[in-house]
Amino acid sequence: MEWLMLGAVIGIGFAALAWSADRFVSGASAIASHFGVSSMLIGLTVVGIGTSLPEMLVSAIAAFDGTAALALGNALGSNVANVGLILGTTALIAPLTMHPRILRREYPLLLGVVIATGLLLLDSHLSRAEGILLLLGMLGVLIWMGVQSRQLGDPSDPIIAEIQAALPTPRPFKKSLSYALIGLVVLLFSSRVLVWAAVTLASKLGVSDLIIGLSIVAVGTSLPELAAAIASVRRGEDDLAIGNIIGSNIFNLLGVLGIAAVITPFAVEGVSLARDYGIMSIFMLAIVLMGFAIGRNAQVGRLEGGILLSVFIAYQILLFVMGR
After folding, report:
1. Pick the CATH number of 2-322 from 1.20.1420.30, 1.10.10.10, 2.40.420.20, 2.60.200.30
2. pTM, rounded to two decimals
3. Residue ranges of E strands in the chain
4. 200-239 per-position pLDDT tens digit
């Protein structure tokens, strides 16, 4: 009965987290538009922060509670899930076409963030100053996205498509305020409950907080992105699905790790740096290898999707076998 209740709490926590994040971002964006903030700035903020807001809040609460390993696992595990679970599952449902333009522009940025973050973790510690540096990097990426969107001006471009899709639906100010306040309260409460349930589950299973963060928490916070990716592909917006995955990976490293380190600087175990950061980097490389594998327009088909998903499942099994 206790296990059933704990599982129910985690499931409800994930659902509440996804719902409240959407409400909060929608309400806050609409409020900003009421005060004359440009639609471009609102869209960039939603694209940059909204996609990783659940991961950020869960990691922030975990850092406040002194369970920074859960925050680290959430950041790295979410990136692995974005490629292995989300891209893999989406390709199994409907193959995706990857256009080189999105890889030429956004993949070098992702690769640079992966390398830079790895260098910060080489000393097995992430300090508060390094956390601030990561958050400044996130701000820099948002500015870069704004510059790119202004220079391109192509409505079909994935960056512009993401920004336009993120713009809030116009609604009265009071309704926007209620959306934001309710969303924020539920967001904070569900994040707190989820962290408690995850730590409790880790204790009962006899595994570390890191393992729970890399597996259950990472997968749970990535489920809304899975639904969004499948919906994008069904509408024929393959570039948008790929762009969302790459963007989410960038902001998970910069924002999620940055917030956690600013709140509570933490040590990084050698096994996590070698195993988890290494496997995450391999999944990041898989995107470009598939993207440039076949001529101008490479397709992530069902074979590639099956391989990605199989490797992801094998990695999850490995985590629980090792237990730390």
Report:
1. 1.20.1420.30
2. 0.86
3. 96-98, 125-126, 266-267, 298-300
4. 877 788 888 888 888 888 888 887 777 777 777 777 766 6
